[in-house]
Amino acid sequence: MAAVETSRMNEAGLRKDGALERLKLFGLASPAMLIILVVLAIPVGWLFYVSFVGADGQFSLENYARMLDSKAYYRIFITTFQVSILTTLLCILIGYPLAYFMAQLPPKLANLCMITVLLPFWTSLLVRTYAWLVLLQKRGLVNEWAISAGLWDEPIKIVHNMNGTLIGMVHIMLPFLILPVYGSMKAIDRDFMKAASNLGATPKRAFWTVFFPLTTPGLFAGALMVFILCLGFYVTPAVLGGGKVIMVSMKIVSNIELFVNWGAASALGVVLLVMTFAILWVASRFLKLESITAGGH
Amino acid sequence: MRRALLRPPHLNRQQARTVLSIDSNGALPITIRNVTKTYGPVHALDNVSLDVKSGEFLTLLGPSGSGKTTLLMVLAGFTRPDCGSLKFGDREVIRTPPHLRDVGMTFQSYALFPHMTVNGNVGYPLRLRKVPKDEIARRVEEALATVQLAGYGNRRIDQLSGGQRQRVAVARAIVFEPRILLMDEPLSALDKKLRDQMQIELRHLHEQLGMTTVYVTHDQREALTMSDRIAVVNHGRIMQLATPRDLYERPANRFVADFIGESTFLSVTRQGKKVLYEGKALKFDTPPPDTDNLLLMIRPERIVLSSGRPAGTSNNFKATATDVVYQGDSFLLHARLPDGNQIVMRGAVRGDRLAQMPTVGDTVTLSLAPEDTVLIDGSED
Fold it and tell me: Do B40 and B86 share a structural domain?
């Protein structure tokens, strides 16, 4: 009996210490959790509620029914996806080679390069968007230069349409793609490419069979991030699209500001949210979502 | 990587392959001539010439930064030397890109592709060579059996232990039957027991496959265990190229003697044909090298403790024991000679000899037989 008691020495005390430690850890997280609850969970719940309230103040599905009936809504969703997909593809086409270039540079130059990538990231979104407007407008710098260089004769419309929207969106989204891709490239052991080459792979084969597959987690993560951010984007398409590129977020604003129809706006918001979650869910079946935050594999 | 992977214009894969397969079975000799590689003012390789015989197991041994890895990278094609010639058999390959050299290689980090299974990794060089699928499966299985990993083909790399990864790396390097195998510190990441076992296994593998093998290590015991010949490298130059036995028994200079095994060095002077230490002529079997800067090299296990009256046929040193360390299988005795020099001696410990272990402060006589009296060139290189 005495032996048993000895082997259970301090058991209760140690268990209490462990519980206390976990409690402290929870305490650290609680302010953030409180904020999320107050400014995210409650408003989203309210959004859901409002979206099911009709014009007469009764429970109704009219806000959702309107979306299914109206061609305009259909077009808005198509535009939103179009812009998001194109922006994501362009970001991949521009960002991947740039990340590859940076990953090959010696550390000092790579840091410098990274700062130039991040610099716009740290500038206000509004400032960058209006800067593009200044550059791209009819009498803007791009047109003036192109005309004086003889590239084209008449000022062409590069803003207030899809082109301008895409240029601005790609510029703003690029860092979100480059960061995880660059991270996954830096994590690749340099010996891998040597080994591939030693085993008989041409540089091209080595890239496609070894390097590229190892960067796909970063690429997926970056592309997903860009795509999801695009879905709900407002400022840039609103300014650079000139009213011709109408995305879901803009329709939400007009529903509130123009039509003061909170129910319709909420329903749109709910649909956007559900779509985003659906995409995340599908994506999570193909990649580990942790890789978005870990920036690698 | 960027630079090394650029394909020089003068060779395509088909050409390289036909030339390399002159000697269609068996190993290829390697001829290295006057290879120099500088990084700024530093000579990573300083006019290195070396012949590796067909089927030989040759080790490049040296401290870190000695240039041994650079030389291996030149052989693999990953480092572009400033000048020199490199031949595999009769074929000049100094400008051949790595993917056309057809040499097997294992990396210190193993460099196994984490997104492929064991089968995927080992089959990779065969897939690149467009070997038919069923033959790939057969040869991969064969290679895995050779390294005693039969049945592990479907494992992911992260499911393998360090020793198993090492074996997969070897299987991948030999599966396409290269006639030259390069190994860059392949065992350095393994613990000592496994390392000892793998040394023997790699040695057997080499005997079985017979490919010319160049092995890089900084571990002198590993080099002595495995090699047909060892090239000791330092400051980008080959200090000595010899069999393990010659290297240990007759080091060419102080650096080699110091690097291989433990030794004590005593300054000696040459007087005509005689070599004197503290005025006394030394008895030796092998004549000393032709230099005035001579050292007497004493290996701890070759000098013995004389009990009673020392034999007149040996060189005897009276000394005072300053430190005695019991190490289980042996004991180490540090003793101070009258001139202040220290000698280290290793003695066997057996039940009946334990009593013979001196204690600190004892005056001891240490004897060195003439055949163990090795006089070496005292220069560092």
Answer: yes
